[in-house]
Amino acid sequence: MAMSAARRAQPAGGAKRALPSRDELLAFVRDKSGKVGTREVARAFGAKNADRAALKRMLRELTDEGHIERRRKMLHRAGTLPAVVVADVTGRDSDGEFLARPTEWDEEAHGTAPVIRIITPRRVRPSEAAGVGDRALIRIERAGAEETTGRVIKLIDRAKHRVLGIFRGLPNGGGRLVPIDKKQLGRELAIPVGATASALDGDLVSVDVVRHGRVGLPSGSVVERLGSIKSERAVSLIAIHAHGIPQEFSPAALAETAAARPATLTGREDWRAIPFVTIDPPDAKDHDDAVHAAPDADPRNAGGHVVTVAIADVAQYVRPGSALDRAAAERGNSVYFPDRVVPMLPERISNDLCSLRPSEDRPALAVRMIVGADGRKRAHSFHRVLIRSTARLHYEQAQLAVSGRTDEITAPIAQAVIEPLYAAYRAVLRARDEREPLDLDIPERKIVLKSDGTVDRLIVPQQLESHRLIEEFMILANVAAAESCARARVPLIYRVHDDPAPEKLNALREFLATLDIALPKGGALRPDAFNRILARVKGRDVERLVNEVVLRSQAQAEYSSDNFGHFGLNLRRYAHFTSAIRRYADLVVHRALIRALKLGGDGLPESVTAAELAEIAANISATERRAMKAERETADRLIAHFLADRVGAVFDGHISGVTRAGLFVELDETGADGFIPARSIGDEYFRFHEAGRAFVGRSQTHRLGDPVTVELVEAAPVAGALRFRLVRDASTQPRRTGHEAQAQQKFGRGRQSRGRH
């Protein structure tokens, strides 16, 4: 079946054959199982060098028209499912089989999400059986026009039959539950007398919904008290429980932790004489990467450098299949909140045995890289070593030292240790600039807490050269790890970033047209095309807006057992290697290197298959998104607490999002996000323009990026929600000039939408 289209196109008698038709191409991509890329299509149809360019044009046209799509550099019929997918169980069919739909699906681009019928094995443990409302990792076994089937690999999240919220006591002894979910605002639950589990006013509680009646509030019963919302640690506790982030380690994992002993030189090279340093934020508790650089003495590499990156050797303590390994795989990554960290591994591992403390022997997996004067990596080698860090520095301290302002720690090592690091970095930076990765400039705010856990202030940390130094050295090490494993043909989990989707590029193209900026059509766009756009708006009023819109047009980075490169970094091979303390993907990469280079008996087991790594990759991609969402929601709640006593105050901000429901506004002072419902934007009728990200009225236009002045109408700290009212908008701001004014005029004439956002 898969080769039928190719066979039909084969010419008789060995004569030179014609290129396949569009229908033949579509049939081949639809029916072919396994890897399907441009190379496979060309091989199947016998397209030689002279025909390949034409074949690529045909494939590009089919992609632009939406008939096929590129996912992970592979060709698929548009709207098809990958081999492993995260899906939500939505119901049962007439035979009682469970049905599921993919969690992430672009309905605007591909229509209604496909239904997956779940094949349930005869023997399955109750704890592993999927149920309606559950989220699961599913392997697609058969995908067809009439039916798609799959099997559950792993349950990711059980159905949320319970509601989290804040208990508010009533005089009669009962109470009300105020939900923490923004979508549930205003939908309280009644808690009858006798169903409060002794909860006190202000407690964060978990409630089982008992009754949804036609009249009155639905009622519920408190099943667990999780702590007081008044405590300094309650805000992050809400996100932890809402997203089901594991907090406690099993007794078996704790027993393995307690039994762990410091590593020795057995099976390791002694690198304790090398003056490594760690460079981290001042409040860092674990130090999992150390760096060293020196001029290369080899005359064949004149002006070059030897850069060494040493990463804490977590594989020494966390063995495949152990209780600690299972706990780390379940968590996927550490989760960072302003007031606490939920670690992937117990603190004795992450903050002690694997923390590269000064003057203490620590095991590491290190990569030594030979870098030319042009900054390009010429060679590298991996080593399992024992190191002894010379100093623990923070970013500003290192930056001051290289500028000549040393302190008692940096003065003795400034010339011999710190200056060579910066010399090597500046060489590496030259190669980085030639590579031209995507160069977005979106400042990140940091919440600074008081001792009681409340918000003190929000800051935008200064980006120093020392930050870039560590970032570029880590990228170099990650590339080396991916290359070594690929060379040894050892299966791996890659960090991948796909090309932007065509529909997102079309929406971006239409938006940029309103600023008289052209985004090229046709052909594969590279990061430098976006960089040229960002350079054009540098210093203009729309700089931040364009950076944000370009960011939204990009695909989301993820983990995959298939390597299809990293678009944003403009790299062919990339894997996360540099933080096995806090990311399970890095631990898998460490094990792969140990196996590939024969560095010990605790590497990636030979029995591990690519399919199993695909399952792990899908799971840790999901846990990464879970962590990001929990961290973002916690920041929203803390800022809402911070602003709760300022209802009625007026703030400057800009429109950060435009949807049919209304306007999202980001405040300039704090970075807080709030919402203006569409019904309260103004007195006149507004039309929503999707491609232009604007509400257009007769006399006013409210557009993404416009400066606004708003009044805070409502703050809901528990949900992290803010509601604003427009006080002054872009129409009353000073008139824009040049292209910005032209764009405003275009929308004032009611330009119609042609793309999808």
Structure notes:
The protein is an alpha+beta fold and 757 residues long. The protein has 5 domains: 4-77, Orthogonal Bundle (Arc Repressor Mutant, subunit A), CATH 1.10.10; 84-157, OB fold (Dihydrolipoamide Acetyltransferase, E2P) (Beta Barrel), CATH 2.40.50.140; 162-230, OB fold (Dihydrolipoamide Acetyltransferase, E2P) (Beta Barrel), CATH 2.40.50; 251-493 and 568-630, no CATH class; 640-748, Beta Barrel (OB fold (Dihydrolipoamide Acetyltransferase, E2P)), CATH 2.40.50.140. It is built from 18 helices and 33 strands. The chain has a 5-stranded mixed β-barrel with strand order 3-4-5-7-6. A 5-stranded antiparallel beta sheet has the order 10-9-8-11-12, with helices on one face. A hairpin with a 5-residue loop joins strand 22 (446-449) and strand 23. Helix 6 packs antiparallel against helix 17 (610-643), helix 7 (251-259) crosses helix 8 and helix 11 packs across helix 12. The protein is globular, with a radius of gyration of 28 Å. It starts with a helix and ends in a 9-residue tail after the last helix. Mean pLDDT is 84; it is low at 1-17 and 730-757.
